[in-house]
Amino acid sequence: MNPAETPIALGADHAGVALKDSLRAALEAAGHPVRDFGTHGDGSVDYPDFAHQVARAVTAGEAVFGVLVCGTGIGMAIAANRHPEVRAVVVHSTTEARLTRAHNDANIACFGARTTGPEVVLDSLSAFLTTPYEGGRHARRVSKINPSPAAQEA
């Protein structure tokens, strides 16, 4: 993982807090600045609250990437993707992490604490953070994710 000056935004619900905390420690040990939006305990919370905070930080340029953790990663991805310019993906492997960055310019990785082992998550996060977006033929497709109002009418 190559450290960057812009922080990586983290968020989790109660099911993902332990994994989030281990990811934070790994990121900080690698020299990445981290902005942790919580949660910070195992009491029941609502995952959209944390997904929205991380998505806002990414879209505002306050974080270069976001990382969200819940039981499956699915709820977090759904909530984060409600924000224009967010491309949040559920990641289960390093291959998915590399391809979603290279082909889709994903900017938020979502992980399932109940579905993916911590070693796989760490390896996948490293791949996500270090894989560049290829652009080229993929840029046209990515531009169609949030079409302009005129394109929506066509």
TrEMBL record:
<dbReference type="InterPro" id="IPR003500">
    <property type="entry name" value="RpiB_LacA_LacB"/>
</dbReference>
<dbReference type="GO" id="GO:0004751">
    <property type="term" value="F:ribose-5-phosphate isomerase activity"/>
</dbReference>
<dbReference type="InterPro" id="IPR004785">
    <property type="entry name" value="RpiB"/>
</dbReference>
<comment type="similarity">
    <text>Belongs to the LacAB/RpiB family.</text>
</comment>
<keyword id="KW-0413">Isomerase</keyword>
<protein>
    <submittedName>
        <fullName>Ribose 5-phosphate isomerase B</fullName>
        <ecNumber>5.3.1.6</ecNumber>
    </submittedName>
</protein>
<dbReference type="InterPro" id="IPR036569">
    <property type="entry name" value="RpiB_LacA_LacB_sf"/>
</dbReference>
<dbReference type="Pfam" id="PF02502">
    <property type="entry name" value="LacAB_rpiB"/>
</dbReference>
